[in-house]
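To illustrate the input format used throughout this study, we show a single complete record. The first block contains the structure-token representation of the backbone; no residue identities are included at this stage. The design step must infer an amino acid for every position from geometry alone.
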């Protein structure tokens, strides 16, 4: 399990540029993290361009929560971009495989 945990932490660091100091799932129990995620949900997530909707400012969150929200939004955008890249690469790989199958000479069965 330790190897798997290290692999996950390495992936988080690679994507976001930061390595969690402890279990990333345990962080969701932290009241500050809950407040940031609640604000993110109240904002309705991200806009199409990956920005925080302007109406969040009207909610007048504490500065620390606002900074946490900006950090969270950046991490979400990085993870989504990586997911989209991997999905695109998989579609391209599948397309190449289908093309290779169609280009392959067919043998005649007897």
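Output of the design step:
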């Amino acid at each position: 399990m330790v190897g798997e945990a290290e692999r996950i932490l390495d992936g988080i660091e690679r994507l976001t540029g930061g390595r969690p100091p402890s279990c990333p799932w345990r962080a969701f129990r932290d009241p500050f993290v809950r407040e940031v995620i609640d604000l993110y949900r109240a904002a309705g997530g991200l806009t199409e361009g990956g920005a925080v909707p302007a109406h969040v400012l009207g909610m007048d969150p504490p500065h620390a929560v606002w900074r946490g929200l900006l950090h969270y939004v950046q991490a979400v955008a990085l993870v989504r971009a990586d997911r989209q890249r991997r999905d695109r690469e998989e579609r391209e790989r599948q397309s190449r495989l289908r093309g290779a199958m169609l280009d392959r000479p067919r043998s005649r069965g007897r």
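Structural context for interpreting the output: The helical segments are 2-16, 31-42, 55-58, 63-103. DSSP finds four helices and no strands in the chain.
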